[in-house]
């Protein structure tokens, strides 16, 4: 039995949904189908999830929300009409979205329910269309599927007790169509995962039903060795390990959510990234282990919007507990950090800009100065992180020198370097301004 997840681009309009249903029809083992909300139909379009977020915000602020509501309804209306599905389905979706919007739930809970209604509507539509073309299919709500999550709006985590419940889905008849992106708390409150979280649903279902394969259908033939929006026609990756993919998606390969590998990895379920628009292409396989042959670097990922908090203190190496005290100040402000490169007398903490608001910065700086008596304290914003990834790097000499040469050729100054202890990745911090030319130069050095 396989789990097939279809992303927003695969259900963006009726033509795409027909392709999705053909893919399901072409293989009887595709029993579990997870869908996202309709995504962008072209570059300038807006994802339904983004419209729903706008709807929730507008409603909460007491402003007129009707025009954005109409835009959302129009997206479903066009799809339902073109698929020749009954008008009652559109009424059902419209009524349920309106009811969610007008519910008495606290704003935070309501926002998640409004946001998730895009996935819910997609699943109802796909299931109805499958039945129309003669495939027995049932819409399954995540509550019915047994997806119990933590009480963290917008950032829920699956709870372990879900898996035995999900396993029972194996006994159900026909194709089961499950909306991605959300689950329910033990108190029956709907909570969404973080953005892009339908990939997580697919992986949870795959782990729960112990699927033979988790197929993740998107709009590219494979995972490329570098973001195709930066380098034209980059090299395709045929096989990746879980570890490599986790590092790459964490560091910016938005094609697959970085948290989504964990459930599949725990049950050792292979993942295949495939293209809805070209399903016969083999795609990229993500597996536990692979043979090391060819290039030791598999991919180069990058992300922007980081800042660094740099502290220097003479004899820091001798001061027991310095690192803990610094990180404690960040913990007290609920700031999570990404990397901590350090020297003898200095330490940097790399944080996402969104985590480190100006208000938090003021409080953190004040406390560091008062409590840690550092000699230097510097905050730098607008940093980009580049991650060079590959399991084969640990047994290969000269990777860092090849990379630093590539930065030099791109005339970009490296602000920091951090090699993860697993030696699967090397991280370089640079100013955002030099990002694209660095990536092109690194790509040329490792894949050119
Ligand atoms: N290294 C990469 N390989 C493939 N695609 C990538 C990579 N980095 C970024 N992307 C982008 O990810 C997109 C697919 O992810 P996403 O938009 O989330 O799809 P979906 O709509 O299927 O959820 C691709 O269209 C591509 O622009
Ligand atoms: N629709 C949600 C969840 C998701 O996974 O979407 P997509 O498959 O389009 O990345 C979002 O936009 O965050």
TrEMBL record:
It comes from Aciduricibacillus chroicocephali. Catalyzes the phosphorylation of the beta-carboxyl group of aspartic acid with ATP to yield 4-phospho-L-aspartate, which is involved in the branched biosynthetic pathway leading to the biosynthesis of amino acids threonine, isoleucine and methionine. Its EC number is 2.7.2.4. GO terms for molecular function: aspartate kinase activity. Pathway: Amino-acid biosynthesis; L-methionine biosynthesis via de novo pathway; L-homoserine from L-aspartate: step 1/3; Amino-acid biosynthesis; L-lysine biosynthesis via DAP pathway; (S)-tetrahydrodipicolinate from L-aspartate: step 1/4; Amino-acid biosynthesis; L-threonine biosynthesis; L-threonine from L-aspartate: step 1/5. It is an enzyme of class 2 (transferase). This is Aspartokinase. It holds the Pfam family AA_kinase.
